[in-house]
Design a protein that fits this description.
By secondary structure, this protein is mostly beta strands. It is 5% helix and 41% strand. It is built from six helices and 53 strands. It has a seven-stranded antiparallel β-sheet. β40 and β41 form a beta hairpin. The longest helix is centred in the first third of the chain and has 10 residues.
Length: 694
């Protein structure tokens, strides 16, 4: 009987699950070993592949692009129109769809746009653009006047003679009352105390101080004529009082039968306790000085000095002739006030001053926006939120009003908000999470809770934050925040802690300067490696897999209708991640592109007892597609070309790949055009203990 030879044990693995990028030494592959029966593979490197048809592996979607746009800002979209800043003839324009609008006071360089309701905030010019009215308005307001010192003569002319060219109201800080419509009432002045005004004699002659000939002085006579013109609902300021009182005329009684009541009648007055202060500047050039202000704005008044230095040259017994003009400087200077009325040349604020003043000195009136970190602004609950690393503060605009950032005086739910943060380091990102605002530092997450200034509160968490320089990597995808931290990409769920999700995909590589966006359920991250190269990495939130597309460098990106658009920093082209888009007019379709994938090492700890005997790959290709299959049979050795594959027909094709007998195998497949890999069949057998070498 013939002896029976030992039969070579053969087995095989069919890999039908392709799980994405894994650059660690533990990358999974269907290893030739009796100890490992893995039926999936991961990839140590790849290019332009995706997991859209998971568990199969396929090339990414074809992109579309538009060139020559000269984009100088981030991207926005509203109403199916793309919005960005560009330059035309060395001037800046805001492009909304196909229309262009010149930016007043344009500053060259990168710009930052923020969508706020039906407005677009434009920085650094600090403008907001109305998408309905197609007009720009300034967020800030600045009025500055150097003023002039008033001489004794000018003061007397201004105060006493209403028929002269220069009047008291050409430049004044005066006490006023408001009517039922919120408009200031006409102000008249007397240089007496209010007591005794009910006397007809007092109302006939405001002062009983006459000269030696018992003749009324000219200024008094002129004032008497002016006094006779006071009408019902007008106000009178009794400046002989200290502080002066504001009285409203509510009745006029005839003094003599047949006399005109508006001229010689006896007037009845009621004191106005709740008065306001009106600041008036008559601009002789015809410019509307305060046209940029409105009721409800908050302004800061500064730069005032005591320019009214000369006393009145009036021969009256009261101390008016030695008047020091009261406390108006201390009350107004370097303080912020709410505007209750505004017109082209005046504003009305709430303040308590001693008396009205013919003030024509220097003055600055400003409504300012904080100096915030570039790109650190967003809208949450009808407020704009921002932060400043220089002052280590966070800010909120007034609710529903992007122009007012210092509206603290009302004490209501719509007020502005500001707070100093105690955590060290610069701000590295800002994001919205449901109705909360999150501020990032590299080692901190600072979360704002509350619905109004009275219940706003900050909570700080010492966890990995956004890596410095990667403020544009913060993206909200399916209820989770994703961002690039110093230790990798983290996802941060409401109520949870940040979790690193990129350990396998990144391996030992470190990334920085990340810019990211959302495309459907995917997180697209364009980041720079330590060696200076750029990579576009994609995380699919539905499968939890990473894929690498190419070396695209974003300068900015945005998502609209679940589709990602970005600006290629190298080519300045505007690119859409999917050619089936609805915003890019006259876009050109991307041509055929290169792709590749590389498997990890396929070996185990029983090196000398196995070898690969057969390799087959199931693929589906498109016309003009081609692929080249390479293999390594020793770690770190050269790549050996095994087979070239060309398109035959649009169906799954089983490609037989000749392989050498070896106990080590790593595959690399490169190609061009569309391809879909649905499976890899590996057959192997036990051999001698002597390892194969090439």
């Amino acid at each position: 009987m013939l002896p029976e030879l030992n039969r070579i044990r053969k087995t095989g693995s069919y890999i039908s699950m392709f799980r994405g990028l894994n650059r660690t030494p533990n990358a999974g592959f269907s290893r030739v070993s009796s100890k490992n029966s893995a039926m999936y593979t991961e990839f140590s490197d790849m290019k332009n592949l995706c997991g859209d048809d998971f568990p199969r592996l396929r090339t990414r979607k074809t992109r579309s692009r538009v060139t020559g746009l000269n984009v100088k800002s981030n991207l926005l979209a509203s109403g199916n129109e793309l919005i960005f800043v560009t330059e035309s003839n060395d001037s800046g324009v805001l492009k909304v769809g196909t229309e262009e609008y010149a930016i007043t006071g344009y500053q060259s360089g990168d710009h930052r746009l923020t969508l706020y309701g039906n407005h677009v905030i434009v920085l650094p010019e600090k403008l907001f653009f109305n998408l309905s009215g197609h007009t720009f308005e300034a967020i800030e307001f600045n009025y500055s006047s150097s003023g002039e010192e008033l001489s004794t003569t000018e003061i007397n002319v201004a105060l006493m003679n209403v028929n002269k060219t220069k009047k008291f109201r050409d430049f004044s800080i005066e006490k006023v009352a408001l009517n039922d419509s919120g408009e200031p009432l006409t102000v008249n002045y007397i240089y007496e105390k209010a007591s005794g005004l009910e006397s007809p004699e007092k109302q006939t002659y405001p002062s009983n101080q006459y000269d030696a000939e018992d003749v009324v002085e000219d200024w008094q006579l002129e004032y008497y004529l002016h006094w006779g013109n006071i009408k019902v609902s007008q106000t009178v300021e009794a400046q002989g009082e200290n502080p002066s009182g504001v009285y409203k005329c509510y009745d006029i009684t005839k003094k003599d039968v047949g006399a005109e009541p508006t001229k010689t009648g006896v007037r009845s007055f009621v004191k106005i306790e709740n008065y306001y202060v009106r600041i008036f500047r008559n601009d002789v050039s015809g410019t509307n000085i305060f046209a940029g202000l409105k009721k409800g704005d908050f302004v800061k008044i500064s730069g005032m000095v005591h320019s009214v230095v000369s006393p009145l040259a009036i021969s009256v017994s009261d101390n008016w002739a030695n008047n020091d003009w009261g406390n108006y400087i201390d009350v107004l200077n370097n303080n912020t006030f709410k505007i209750y009325y505004a017109d082209s040349n005046s504003i009305v604020i709430k303040a308590i001053i001693d008396k009205s003043v013919p003030y024509n000195g220097p003055m600055k009136i400003s409504r300012v926006m904080p100096q915030i970190d570039s790109g650190m602004m967003l809208e949450v609950n009808n407020r704009l939120w921002a932060c400043s690393s220089a002052s280590n503060e966070i800010y909120s605009s007034k609710q529903g009003d992007c122009r007012n950032w210092q509206a603290y005086g009302d004490g209501i739910s719509t007020d502005s908000y500001a707070a100093t943060v105690g955590n060290e380091g610069v701000f590295t990102g800002i994001a919205r999470q449901n109705d909360s605002v999150i501020f990032f530092k590299e080692n901190w997450i600072i979360k704002m809770f509350g619905t109004k200034p009275s219940n706003f509160s900050l909570a700080s968490y010492n966890v990995p934050g956004v890596e410095r320089g990667s403020e544009k990597s913060v993206v909200w995808v399916n209820g989770v925040l994703f961002y690039l931290s110093p230790i990798g990409v983290c996802h941060y769920s409401p109520g949870g802690q940040p979790v690193v999700i990129s350990d396998k995909a990144f391996g030992n590589k470190k990334y920085k300067n990340g810019i990211a966006g959302r495309h459907r359920n995917k997180y697209f991250l364009s980041a720079q490696t330590d060696s200076g190269t750029w990579e576009l990495l994609v995380f699919d939130t539905s499968t939890g897999l990473w894929h690498k597309e190419d070396n695209t460098r974003f300068s900015d990106c945005m998502t609209y209708n679940n589709v990602l658009y970005w600006i290629n920093a190298d080519t300045e082209a505007l690119v859409c991640a999917d050619q089936d888009n609805n915003l890019l007019d006259s876009a050109e379709k991307e041509g055929e592109f290169d792709w590749c994938f590389e498997t990890p090492d396929m070996y185990d700890n029983d090196f000398g007892k196995k070898y690969v005997s057969k390799l087959q790959i199931s693929v589906k290709m498109s016309p003009i597609s081609e692929a080249v299959i390479y293999a390594q049979f020793r770690h770190g050795s050269i790549w050996h070309e095994l087979k070239r594959v060309f398109y035959t027909e649009r169906r799954n094709e089983l490609i037989h790949v000749p392989v050498r007998r070896a106990d080590f195998l790593r595959l690399r497949v490169e190609g061009r055009g569309e391809i879909e890999v649905s499976g890899i069949q590996i057959d192997y057998a036990r051999g001698s203990e002597k390892p194969w070498q090439f």
